């Protein structure tokens, strides 16, 4: 009988050892999937014991992601590179001034690249945890980015799942745009140039894949590392060139680029660089802008008198923010407006599956994008402005809801 007792004791010891080893591992690690509880939560080998009292964002990209998640209320400080207007109220701090972050109310700081041990130690001494979350490199990786940021700010279940949902909704919008792009017999080749020094968004980047989401062929799809030398560009000779604001004039004056067909024929289009550089809601605007520029019929509709009209400046017609208060004249609602009518608008957009931000009664960027999405899928001029015509259709039984099919 003694051998049975020894065997049972041995099994118990093994079980205890395995339990201890499991307890020594990362707590509630969500690096590869949703957690079992909100906190503590481990992300990229960093454990956050409880919901952060406040967050300092040290990366423009992560700032845009936090805004896309609707978690901006968690932010207490930012670096001056984070220039989104919705964050203007936050104090600027240096990326290594952990005492200032703590004084602003932040006990967690988000950054793109892994900090050094010295930086971690200095931050820890000030009571700040550093968490590095890398930018996304593709569609599926965007879900990883959003879910990790969500988990850090709001927990391994609640925040993680919200991040997954927001990423999925981003691509629902992008897929909606792709579905309405006209079919063409001849592929249309375009390129997004970063500068006049041989750099463009290549096929291994999320931005390069966004070009394809607009129903276009990325001239730099076979290149990597955002390196696209002039000789390769000249061989591809794209029909359209997109670029950051201010680069068009440079291309027109730079030898080699002047000979490109798109430059000679006036098909160089500048975009807000933040739309492509950062991975928040702006990427939807980027796809919409590129698709609408190449296929202007997307932004045209028939007036009641049978004539065709188009938005005055295509998909970016509402780029100038309104400074309205409660509502515009004639029942028009637009960015900057605030009040019960905006809240009612948001609730209807949410009911139809278009609004993915929290209804607050403030017509901000998320509401503007939702109105654009509604107008796009309902065959209207895409402006992002809820004019009387848009609202009439929105509240009617004829409004087309958004589906993920």
Short description:
The protein has 405 residues and is an alpha/beta fold.
Q: How would you summarize the topology of this molecule?
A:
Elements: H1 2-24, E1 41-43, E2 46-48, E3 55-57, H2 60-69, E4 75-78, H3 98-103, E5 108-111, H4 117-125, E6 129-132, H5 139-180, E7 189-192, H6 206-213, E8 217-218, H7 230-236, E9 240-244, H8 247-253, H9 261-264, E10 268-271, H10 273-277, H11 282-294, E11 300-302, E12 308-310, H12 340-351, H13 365-377, H14 388-394
Parallel strand pairs: 3-4, 3-5, 5-6, 7-8, 7-9, 9-10
Antiparallel strand pairs: 1-2, 11-12
Helix pairs in contact: 2-5, 5-11, 6-11
What do you see in this structure?
This protein has 405 residues and is α/β, with parallel strands linked by helices. Helices cover 41% and strands 10% of the residues. It contains 14 helices and 12 strands. It has helices at 2-24, 60-69, 98-103, 117-125, 139-180, 206-213, 230-236, 247-253, 261-264, 273-277, 282-294, 340-351, 365-377, 388-394; strands spanning 41-43, 46-48, 55-57, 75-78, 108-111, 129-132, 189-192, 217-218, 240-244, 268-271, 300-302, 308-310. A 4-stranded parallel β-sheet has the order 4-3-5-6, sandwiched between helices. Strand 5 (108-111), helix 4 and strand 6 (129-132) form a beta-alpha-beta unit. Helix 2 packs across helix 5. Mean pLDDT is 87; it is low at 15-23 and 301-329.
């Amino acid at each position: 009988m003694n051998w049975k007792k020894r065997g049972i004791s041995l099994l118990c010891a093994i079980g205890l050892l395995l339990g201890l080893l499991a307890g020594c591992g990362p707590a509630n690690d969500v690096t590869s999937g949703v957690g079992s509880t909100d906190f503590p939560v481990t992300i990229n080998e960093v454990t956050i014991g409880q919901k952060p009292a406040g967050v300092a964002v040290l990366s423009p990209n992560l700032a845009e992601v936090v805004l896309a998640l609707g978690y901006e209320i968690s932010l207490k400080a930012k670096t001056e590179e984070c220039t989104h207007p919705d964050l203007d109220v936050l104090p600027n701090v240096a990326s290594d001034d952990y005492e200032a972050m703590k004084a602003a109310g932040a006990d967690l700081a988000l950054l793109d690249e892994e900090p050094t041990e010295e930086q971690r130690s200095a931050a820890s001494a000030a009571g700040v945890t550093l968490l590095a979350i890398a930018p996304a490199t593709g569609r599926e990786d965007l879900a990883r980015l959003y879910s990790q940021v969500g988990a850090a700010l709001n927990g391994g279940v609640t925040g993680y799942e919200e991040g997954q949902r927001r990423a999925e909704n981003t691509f629902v919008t992008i897929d909606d745009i792709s579905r309405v792009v006209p079919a063409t017999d001849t592929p249309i080749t375009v390129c997004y140039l970063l500068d006049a020094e041989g750099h463009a968004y290549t096929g291994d980047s999320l931005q390069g894949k966004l070009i394809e989401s607009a129903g276009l062929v990325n001239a730099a799809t076979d290149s990597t590392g955002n390196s696209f030398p002039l000789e390769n560009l000249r061989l591809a000779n794209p029909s359209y060139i997109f670029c950051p604001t201010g680069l068009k004039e440079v291309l027109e004056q730079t030898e080699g680029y002047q000979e490109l067909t798109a430059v000679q024929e006036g098909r160089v289009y500048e975009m807000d660089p933040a739309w492509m550089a950062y991975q928040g809601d702006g990427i939807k605007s980027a796809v919409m802008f590129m698709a609408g520029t190449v296929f202007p019929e997307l932004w045209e509709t028939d007036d009641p008198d049978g004539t065709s009209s188009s938005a005055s400046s295509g998909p970016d017609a509402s780029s100038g923010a309104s400074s309205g208060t409660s509502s515009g004249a004639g029942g028009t609602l637009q960015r900057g407006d605030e009040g019960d009518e905006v809240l009612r608008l948001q609730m209807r957009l949410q009911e139809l599956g278009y609004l993915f931000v929290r209804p607050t009664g403030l017509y901000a960027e998320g509401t503007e994008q939702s109105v654009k999405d509604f107008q796009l899928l309902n065959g209207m001029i895409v402006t992002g402005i809820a004019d009387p015509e848009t609202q009439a259709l929105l509240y009617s039984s004829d409004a087309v809801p958004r589906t993920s099919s």
